[in-house]
Amino acid sequence: MAAMFTCCLGCCGDGGSGHIPLKEMPTVQLDTHHMGVWGIGVATQKVNLNQVPLGRDTNSLVLRHDGSVYHNNEEKNRLPANSLPQEGDIVGITYDHVELNLYLNGKNMHCPASGIRGTVYPVVYVDDSAILDCQFSDFYHTPPQGFEKILFEQQIF
């Protein structure tokens, strides 16, 4: 079963970021409240969270606020010019351990990107007064088939 995380993370403005390990295939939904510099995607534990924008090295694969998707300082794909996220839009991301896919207000943007390797974590960053909401369940839009909320690993013993 694939897992999904929908991200409407409550982050405000000046260099905030965070990550949670992914054990399954996630989806992210990001609600943009105040546009600024932001990014959302996946990253390894080795990513430098103090250096934004992410996507500059092999440790992160992110959609940036300008619609570009970066990994290893290379643009891997880009949202169509008429589909850049605006204030109030919901940005969705799915990752199946190979390919990152992007959604805008529930619509698939057909803008896949790949390249990151190893265990990855969801990552969100904000700067320049950006305000975003991330939600990890109770999504605004129905996740794509095969994806659901993130299942957090728990030790049973």
Automatic annotation (TrEMBL):
Residues 28-137 form the SPRY domain. Gene3D superfamilies: 2.60.120.920. It comes from the Eukaryota. This is SPRY domain containing 7b. It comes from Seriola lalandi dorsalis.
